[in-house]
Amino acid sequence: MIIKYILSGLFLLLIFYSLIRPFSGLMPRIFLFSGSLLGFLSVLGVGYTNSVANFLGIGRGADLYLYLSLITIFVFIFYSFDKFKTIEKRIIKISREVALKDIDKN
Amino acid sequence: MKNLDNVYVILPLFNESKVLDKVIDEVQSTFKNIIVIDDGSTDNSYDLLLKKDVTLIKHPINLGQGAAITTGFEYVKKIENAFAVITFDSDGQHSVDDAKEFAKTILNCEEEIIFGSRFLGNEKNIPLIKRNVLKIATFITNIITGMNLSDTHNGLKAIKKSCIKKLDLDINGYAFESQFIYQISKRKISYRELPANIIYTDYSISKGQSIRNGFIIIEDIIQSINKR
Fold first, then answer.
1. Structurally, what CATH architecture does the domain formed by B4-126+151-169+187-201 represent?
2. How many CA atoms lie within 13 A of B123 on its CB side?
3. Structure pTM?
């Protein structure tokens, strides 16, 4: 029973955090908010997540979590990939500037 | 009057200590202006280069061949008397005679870039598997870029400085050539092809690209399409 309170509190904090944290776009906020909300509902009772799943046309709450998890994983992979590319380009830009400033003309 | 002194040779280099002495001596027999970009070599290439009469640019870390060539372009943009550049592989697979022919042609032709092609000359020199892989790569690159080249992944090129200024290259790895060609096509830059004989040695083959890199090239091409 204690774990239920801890998790509920954690998810509520996350919902609050998703509303006040500054994000670069709307999508991360929606992701964090909806994920935390579903987490909170699942702690309250499986029936709640089943209701949401039924509303969305998905059979069970567990399936809804599976689909959302897959989407989250792929979004995260592509976001990370894009982020790595951006960082790589910045490193190259800096390295090039350093190299061009330090030309050794024999 | 423009002459070979207005043509700069860009030599991107990574761990080529075994052959760089010979390659640079050969290039120096024809060209006065050589820019070597040491792409973060971990062998003694840099020490050997210090003894050579070249302009030496050293990347603090390995960034990729495309990045090295782009660094060379950035440097040449600021050289007033530079009219054109020749990109020349440092593993000894290009012929200096071909580079000289490219330089003479770029000084006098209207086109802004000359692509080297190993399929316009003696293509039987090319190992069979490599020949077929190159043809497939050329076919795909031509479809994606809308160009009509016979060899899209040949490092030997002559490029006018006016052309370099029009490009905005940011792919550093294997797909640099594809992005380069894509931008030439998008910006409608005039070009021609000349035969470029490739000297295949065990060393140059071992330094070449593996077939698996083709997947990374395709991935990078798709990304570069979004870049104007």
1. Alpha-Beta Complex (3.90)
2. 15
3. 0.79
